[in-house]
Amino acid sequence: LSGLDPAQPYFQDTPIEVRLDKSDAEFVDVIHTDSAPTIPYLGFGMSTAIGHLDFYPNGGQQMPGCGKNPVSQIVDLDGIWEGTRDFVACNHLRSYKYYSDSIIYPDGFLGYSCASYDVFDTDTCFPCPQEGCPNMGHFADKFKGKIKTDFLKLYLNTGEAKDFALWRYKVTVTLSGKSKVKGYANIALYGSSGNTRQHQIVKGTLRPDNTYTSFIDAEVNIGTVTKVKFLWNNNQLNPTFPKLGAATITVESGENG
């Protein structure tokens, strides 16, 4: 059974007889997309972990792309009817959109086992453990025989619009140069299966010999890394024309480390 943002009003914290529960089937996976409290946020979805696998994309409360202004959302690419529904219950309806996208991307939507969404952005939950990470959506049941705990809370990020699947990489950059500069550094990844756009690794004071780490949720599974493009930019006009480079860049795939 796959629960697509099971309802919160009248169901949260009720006995298992009246709501979805992992005792309802041999395998129950749940996607939580609108689990903010009903009052004052009008969250329609349940926040409690109730399945064998509980996925909380983007933290499970506010989905990217749902904060668009009402007019652009109603006059949506999918038509006025779809856009109007999205305006009223965008976060809630993301669950079925992620599910349908997961059918097209069997290797996408990897959920990382984590204590919370805040911890998800640290090294604690990266990369996937030896047994791998479950896929949110249609292929979640591939993980059926590997569940060792009562409840498994899983976190991941998605895109703002279709296609929603993203692939997570950890990028570590050690800078080289002679003097510190204010600005930002970007990285683009090139691989055997595709290339990413530029992703910002660090913003602020860039110091030579310092190491900076960032997670990239890439819009493509790049496969084997073939090339990394490093670009930096300084915020203000500098008459000394400072030079900055990357001494080393390490790329780690979340899927296989």
Automatic annotation (TrEMBL):
Biological or metabolic pathway of the protein: Glycolipid metabolism; Glycerolipid metabolism; triacylglycerol degradation
Domain of life: Eukaryota
Recorded GO MF terms: galactolipase activity; lipoprotein lipase activity
Catalysed transformations (reactions): a 1,2-diacyl-sn-glycero-3-phosphocholine + H2O = a monoacyl-sn-glycero-3-phosphocholine + a fatty acid + H(+); 1-beta-D-galactosyl-2,3-didodecanoyl-sn-glycerol + H2O = 1-beta-D-galactosyl-dodecanoyl-sn-glycerol + dodecanoate + H(+); 1,2,3-trioctanoylglycerol + H2O = dioctanoylglycerol + octanoate + H(+); a 1,2-diacyl-3-O-[alpha-D-galactosyl-(1->6)-beta-D-galactosyl]-sn-glycerol + H2O = acyl-3-O-[alpha-D-galactosyl-(1->6)-beta-D-galactosyl]-sn-glycerol + a fatty acid + H(+)
Pfam families recorded: Lipase (PF00151), PLAT (PF01477)
Topology versus the membrane: Peripheral membrane protein
Annotated GO CC locations: extracellular space; neuron projection; zymogen granule membrane
Residues of the PLAT domain: 167-257
Keywords: Cell projection, Cytoplasmic vesicle, Disulfide bond, Hydrolase, Lipid degradation, Lipid metabolism, Secreted
Subcellular location(s) of the protein: Cell projection, Neuron projection; Secreted; Zymogen granule membrane
EC number per UniProt: 3.1.1.26
Main localization category: other
One GO-annotated biological process of the protein: lipid catabolic process
Similarity annotation: Belongs to the AB hydrolase superfamily. Lipase family.
Stated name of the protein: Pancreatic lipase-related protein 2
Record lineage: Eukaryota, Metazoa, Chordata, Craniata, Vertebrata
